[in-house]
Design goal:
The chain is mostly helical. The protein has 14 helices and no strands.
């Protein structure tokens, strides 16, 4: 009886992997160690930067929050938890928290809604689409403080052009004070932020839209799906990662709002537009109390970390489902 030779491919699969020739175990270990050291060398500058400019200041702020620390006198010893209790007793703390949350909700809804609409308008490769993408994104190249100063001049009832244009059109009879009431100050600031950042979030959502395969839309059209059904059942679910990133950035940036209110309203009128970060600035550089300012900074940091954890867990749960 003739014995059939074993299959060579099956024998090679069953055989244990051989060490590359010319590289004994000691040489391979040295090679892995050198690669590890090389990777640590590449990561060391970034780690040093984070340690010096984030971890050390964070530890210093934590120490300040537990000490009596005037700005001009330095550390006078521990007083925990007096700094934290003094914050809650401040008459501006809870109004600042409520206003910051209101501003965050309004800006997030208006900004992301407009950004999504702009992204849908310029997603197709049609004549002029590139021009409008550039025009929408152009305000994002201007710094927020510079844009706030620009709008402060536009909103001025005496020297600004907006009030005069409305008077010439006959829409108003007296100069308009865009920043004179709490509601008008909030809406005027929201308009500035939307003008400044709509193009940035449009770009994020546009990238997400362009990653959706066209075959999916073609299949939906062949099945007779309407535009509304396609948008609800295809575009929004597949755009969820970009929407989640935009939501995270927008909420975090709105909760840390400072420049626009500091330049436009200075917290007025009658302290109605004071944000939490403005309150930190006032405690540190107007009341000269770094201890309470540091305690409020720790509270804001903890709130942002908790919010980001909740959002990330929600996104991970949605991905798993």
């Amino acid at each position: 009886m003739q014995v059939k030779a074993p299959d060579r491919a099956a024998a090679e699969q069953q055989a244990p992997p051989r060490r590359p020739p010319g590289r004994p175990a000691a040489t391979a270990a040295r090679w892995r160690r050198s690669r590890t050291l090389q990777g640590l060398g590449y990561a060391a500058p970034t780690a040093l930067f984070v340690a010096v400019f984030f971890l050390l200041p964070l530890l210093l702020v934590g120490q300040m929050s537990l000490h009596d620390w005037p700005l001009l006198a330095g550390d006078r010893g521990g007083n925990a938890p007096e700094n934290y209790t003094d914050i809650s007793d401040s008459p501006l703390f809870w109004p600042a928290v409520r206003f910051t949350l209101l501003y965050t909700v309004v800006v997030t809804v208006v900004l992301l809604g407009l950004a999504l609409g702009l992204a849908l308008l310029v997603q197709e490769s049609r004549p002029g689409a590139g021009f409008f993408r550039t025009v929408y994104f152009l305000p994002g190249a201007l710094g927020l403080a510079s844009a706030s100063l620009l709008f402060w001049g536009l909103y001025s009832p005496t020297t600004g052009p907006l009030s005069k244009i409305l008077e010439k059109l006959g829409l108003v009879s007296d100069p308009v004070s865009f920043l004179g009431t709490p509601t008008s100050a909030l809406l005027s600031t929201v308009f500035l932020v939307v003008w400044k950042f709509a193009g940035f979030y449009m770009l994020i959502l546009l990238v997400g839209l362009q990653r959706i395969p066209h075959e999916v839309y073609e299949a939906a059209r062949m099945d007779g799906a309407s535009r509304a059904q396609t948008f609800r059942s295809i575009t929004l679910p597949l755009l969820r990662p970009s929407l989640a990133l935009s939501l995270l950035l927008c909420v975090t940036g709105s909760l840390l709002a400072f420049d626009q209110f500091f330049v436009l309203t200075k917290g007025g009128p009658d302290n109605s537009t004071v944000t939490v970060v403005q309150l930190i600035y006032r405690e540190a550089f107007q009341k000269l109390n770094l201890g309470t300012a540091a305690a409020l900074s720790i509270i804001v940091l903890a709130a942002l970390l908790l919010l980001n954890i909740v959002q990330f867990r929600g996104l991970r749960r949605d991905d798993a489902s």
